[in-house]
């Protein structure tokens, strides 16, 4: 008699990459269309700066850098360079268009603290 052992892993895997909400993807797609170029992608980077030590940068980019992490969200490519990827793992990018807030927001589980103005984190 043979028995087959089946083990199931219960370890949670760490989130990788950045998530772009549907609302943010629609806004990014509209902004790229306004630029009139089909070679642009949304690049998200973490740079030194701000009163808390690190600052987000979101911009359109046509470049491909060695080690880039690329994810597609409804036809919108989101690119993160290899140095910024660990700081942004699991982050969610959304777009708010309300009377009290307008623009892209980043919910980052890796940000321990942020400054009062919300412009930088560490």
From TrEMBL:
<dbReference type="GO" id="GO:0051537">
    <property type="term" value="F:2 iron, 2 sulfur cluster binding"/>
</dbReference>
<dbReference type="InterPro" id="IPR016092">
    <property type="entry name" value="ATAP"/>
</dbReference>
<dbReference type="Pfam" id="PF01521">
    <property type="entry name" value="Fe-S_biosyn"/>
</dbReference>
<dbReference type="GO" id="GO:0005506">
    <property type="term" value="F:iron ion binding"/>
</dbReference>
<feature type="domain" description="Core">
    <location>
        <begin position="18"/>
        <end position="119"/>
    </location>
</feature>
<dbReference type="InterPro" id="IPR017870">
    <property type="entry name" value="FeS_cluster_insertion_CS"/>
</dbReference>
<protein>
    <submittedName>
        <fullName>Putative iron-sulfur cluster assembly accessory protein</fullName>
    </submittedName>
</protein>
<dbReference type="GO" id="GO:0051539">
    <property type="term" value="F:4 iron, 4 sulfur cluster binding"/>
</dbReference>
<dbReference type="InterPro" id="IPR035903">
    <property type="entry name" value="HesB-like_dom_sf"/>
</dbReference>
<dbReference type="GO" id="GO:0016226">
    <property type="term" value="P:iron-sulfur cluster assembly"/>
</dbReference>
<dbReference type="InterPro" id="IPR000361">
    <property type="entry name" value="ATAP_core_dom"/>
</dbReference>
């Amino acid at each position: 008699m043979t028995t087959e052992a089946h083990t199931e892993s219960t370890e949670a895997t760490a989130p990788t990459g950045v998530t772009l909400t549907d609302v943010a993807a629609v806004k990014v797609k509209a902004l790229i269309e306004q630029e009139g170029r089909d070679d642009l992608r949304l690049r998200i980077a973490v740079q030194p700066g701000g009163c808390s030590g690190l600052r987000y940068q979101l911009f359109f980019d046509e470049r491909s850098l060695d080690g880039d992490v690329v994810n597609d969200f409804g036809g919108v490519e989101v690119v993160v360079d290899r140095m910024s990827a660990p700081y942004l793992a699991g982050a969610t990018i959304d777009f708010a268009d309300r009377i009290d807030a307008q623009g892209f927001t980043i919910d980052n589980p890796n940000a321990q603290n942020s400054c009062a103005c919300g412009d930088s984190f560490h």
